[in-house]
Write a structure and sequence with these properties.
Blueprint (H helix, E strand, L loop, with lengths): L4 E4 L9 H16 L3 E4 L13 H12 L5 E2 L15 H13 L3 E4 L3 H13 L22 H9 L5 E4 L6 E6 L3 E6 L7 E3 L7 H11 L4 E5 L6 H11 L7 E5 L2 E2 L9 H7 L8 E2 L6 E2 L9 H9 L14 H7 L10 E2 L2 H14 L2 H14 L6 H11 L14 H4 L7 H7 L4 H14 L5 H14 L4 H13 L7 H8 L1 H20 L1
Parallel strand pairs: 1-2, 2-3, 9-10, 11-14
Antiparallel strand pairs: 4-5, 5-8, 6-7, 12-13
Helix pairs in contact: 1-10, 6-7, 9-11, 12-13, 16-18, 16-20, 17-19
The structure holds glutamic acid.
Length: 511
Amino acid sequence: MNQVRVRFAPSPTGPLHIGGLRTALFNYLFARKHDGKFILRIEDTDQARFVSGAEDYINEALEWCGILPDEGVGIGGEHGPYRQSERQAIYAGYAENLIETGKAYYAFDTPGELEEIRRSFEEKKETFTYDAVTRKDLRNSLNLSETETGDLLEDGTPYVIRFKFEREETITMKDLVRGEVKVDSNTLDDKILFKSDGMPTYHLANVVDDHLMGITHVIRGEEWLPSLPLHVSLYKAFGWKKSMPEFAHLPLILKPDGKGKLSKRDGDKGGFPVFPLAWTDPGSGQVSSGYREAGYFPETCLNILAFLGWNPGTEKELFTLRELVDHFDISRIGKAGAKFDPEKAKWFNHQYLQRKPAAEIAGLFQNDLEKRGIEADIGLVRKIVELVRERADFVSELWEHSAFFFMAPEDYDEKVVRKRWKEQTPGIMKELVAILASVDPFTSTNIEMTVKSEAEAREWGMGAVMNPWRLLMVGTLKGPSLSEMAEIIGKKEVISRIERGIGNIETRLSK
Ligand code: GLU
């Protein structure tokens, strides 16, 4: 096999959907697996759909996930430029070449004329397509004489160039995911290759560029499968059949219930992002949420994406990018649509929150604390992270599981007070203060052993000590191990919380 060269070829028409990022990932994995090159090409020939900021968004999303191109926009390479708008001069010659060889033709029908024909078809309850049958009655260079066509072109009459599909042909295509696919040419319309604004359409530019850039495998979303007959026919028409890339169309990404394609609306409704990064629409100012801003790790995002249509064939679920490269195999991509599961997405994040180095999570949590006006020593934050992270899916949830480390409770859970605060409790808590004061050094093991043996000696049930003590430390019965918590909070603060708490609760009860 020649050196593998694959490309990710997004159109900058808005933020990259996670489906687009999955296409990028699968191309990247395939390139890495085969020691090939991963190319980023920006397909911006459709000026009407161009959205400013979309290209930067694509770059930022790829960078965030670590799916870095080897060649392309922003990097360079031997096959540049890689932005199609900068390659404009290349395409016209290829379109004209097809006209010369009789594989394409000029069509002069105005939008108004086509609209009228479309309407007349609708009246007959038929759908108009510009194809091998209808083109006989339309204004194109197949019906006009050479002189008429020449005059129209010379006069600057607007035209498009259309591909000429022959009738009664079976177009056979090979797809690495679907196997052999056959299409009857009678069902195809003569797609526009070149537009009156002097720009190629996606189809022409895409095929010409894949050829010129030496692309060996085209891996893209299933929505492009209907274009494959045209693309394969274009390769043949240009005489490039031998060097035609292989194709793999990735399955659709479906809504969580499996009913239809996943859309931005599903994300809004279900409260989960469908974009890797948040995006503010430059026109409406509307903001769409992103995985990054919602607190997902890039590692999580990669795992979510990898499992959308692919599986390793084993029970293993957590993969680093490196491991994905090692395990990736195009033959393990399924044809069936892949349901997006937002709960599984959270599960992946939970797993990474547990597995990432505590120091890294502590750094992130420290930033969160700073925003809350709390300055805490990183060593301390790290200990807290180790104690509470198993309860959280996101860094942003660490606060709710650990706020009591940083602040004494302002209030005490009413129900717990009623149930657990007995007549003898204030006495026990006062004695607990004395017991804790004697613990030295104030380590969790020492605290635990001392409190336990002293409680036994006094014949207190453990519940009679631990529940009110926790209530005074946290305000509720939640939280991790009391002795570990006490060590982190420190002797002075622990004692002050108990003493203040006894007073507060007693005053409240006496009212
Ligand atoms: N520009 C197309 C897109 O936006 C690329 C399709 C392809 O990969 O051929 O998805």
